[in-house]
Design goal:
378 residues, mainly beta, SH3 type barrels, Lipocalin, 2 domains, twelve-stranded antiparallel barrel, 1 helix
């Protein structure tokens, strides 16, 4: 509903292009891990469903496109050169960012530029085509070329309104070996003015007639704080369990200072050192041990734009242990997420874990595999 009480309906029509006027150890027990993972996923899905109406904004944002087209609705976000707009009659519309020539909205957003700077404010009509005007709370207006804008997020009344993420599930059964595998993946990312908070869950449970059930779970929470265009601070906390490595539980806190030699809308590469402290226990061990280690992180992301876009990611984290006997660990994670429309995806995610000297002498030194799943994004 507009400020004057009149309802603004969605419009997607061709008309002459003009600027409009606007008013200004805490992991689950082995016997309950499957139910814990399913409960976590159901709780997440339910919370997202219940929160969606509360997070909805007025659909009064105006997007002007090349050749005079215009869309009226709710600007959700700009990510990977795709602008998502929620309309009243057409659902969610995805527009390629190069096709946008102007945005106008009295509602507040966070705008990220290619140099890493972030601006907060409303979008008044710009004086020149090809620029985005951002008016702050103080009334100052900054004009940013649209080509320099790499991200737009809603600035809501609370952090939850900036949420985005996905929920994946996969299951396979092999008749010859009589084994089955269940996988679950989920992510919720929340963005504020000066940081991004990412929470992920990866869970795999394999059961067969020849051996006992095997479980692998990783829960991670990380906070990214941009430090200009080329650097960022990264703090992470994680809990993991891996039956194939004999790992009953490992809780880790780490901090990394990352350098970004590539930081663009389409791709990002990061490299940086850090330090971590872990508390871990193995099935054949009688007590927990505390381990301090260094961290060397190498990671990257690549995006192919559009409604059927692709996101590829890779990370390799090396942990040289600084306390106790000589030892090092390596964690490698790969991911390929293919969009199958606006909200659904297919994901393939290989992984590899290596420990040169597990505290439990009988524990294997490496574990590897791959997850394939269907997912829903929000």
């Amino acid at each position: 509903m507009a400020a004057g009480g009149r309802r603004r309906e969605d419009v997607l029509v061709r008309r002459p292009w003009t600027y409009p006027t606007h008013p200004a150890r805490l992991g689950p027990s082995p016997g309950r891990t499957l139910s814990w993972a399913l409960s976590w996923a159901l709780t997440l899905a339910g919370a997202l469903t219940l929160a969606a109406p509360a997070a909805a904004r007025d659909r009064i944002d105006l997007v002007l496109l090349a050749h005079g087209d215009r869309v009226t609705g709710e600007i959700i976000r700009l990510e990977s050169a795709t602008l998502s707009i929620r309309t009243r009659t057409l659902g969610t519309v995805d527009v390629d960012w190069p096709d946008v020539v102007a945005l106008v909205s009295p509602q507040s957003f966070v705008v990220e530029r290619t140099d890493g700077e972030r601006l907060t404010g409303t979008f008044p009509a710009s004086e020149r085509p090809g620029e985005l005007a951002v008016r702050s709370e103080s009334g100052a207006t900054t004009a940013v070329p649209l080509g320099d804008v790499v991200g737009i997020d809603q600035l809501g009344a609370n952090l939850w309104k900036s949420r985005r993420g996905y929920l994946d599930a996969g299951w396979s059964f092999t008749q010859a070996r009589r084994d089955s595998s269940f996988s679950l993946g989920a992510e919720v990312t929340l963005r504020a003015r000066r940081f991004r908070w990412r929470n992920t869950l990866t869970s795999t449970i394999t059961d067969d007639d020849a051996s006992a059930r095997s479980e692998r779970h990783v829960v991670e929470s990380s906070v990214e704080v941009p430090l200009g265009r080329r650097f960022l601070g990264l703090g992470t906390g994680s809990w993991e369990r891996n039956d194939d490595l004999g790992l009953d539980a490992r809780t880790t806190a780490a901090g990394v200072l990352a350098w970004l030699p590539v930081n663009r809308a389409r791709a990002r590469v990061m490299l940086g050192p850090g330090v971590a402290e872990s508390r871990e226990s193995y099935v054949s061990q009688g007590e927990e041990s505390t381990v301090t280690s260094g961290v060397l992180l190498l990671g990257g992301e690549y995006h192919r734009f559009g409604r059927f876009g692709t996101r590829a990611s890779a990370s390799a984290t090396w942990y040289p242990v600084l306390s106790g006997p000589s030892r090092h660990r390596l964690e490698v994670r790969l991911g390929l997420r293919q969009k199958m429309g606006s909200d659904f995806t297919v994901t393939v995610a290989p992984y590899y874990s290596y420990d040169s000297r597990p505290p439990a002498s009988a524990a294997p030194t490496e574990d590897w595999g791959s997850l394939t799943s269907l997912g829903w994004t929000f």
